[in-house]
């Protein structure tokens, strides 16, 4: 599932991604990706998800380390930075996402080159 909020859609309309001057390639913004995986995840209600995988991608510049620390101190995301991720889903997948973000987080950053 890919979601964008109203601000992100507005920004995309007003500032579309353009090709770089020296080439015809499209510039890609710096991205931060987080991945959570469970080979078997049993959620309340008896449902079992096999190979449950959750990937969250957002622009790197949106990540403010101070805000991230404050959010973690409040316990708003289980320490995994995933509260905004689980809120994108409806039940039962919201519960599954909340369970996944409490697991080991794999991080990857991608910069435009």
TrEMBL record:
* Extent of Basic and acidic residues compositional bias: 66-75
InterPro entries this protein is in?
AUF1-like
Record region (Disordered) = 59-81
Q: Which PANTHER family match?
A: OS05G0510400 PROTEIN-RELATED
Q: Can you say what this protein is called?
A: F-box proteinisoform X1
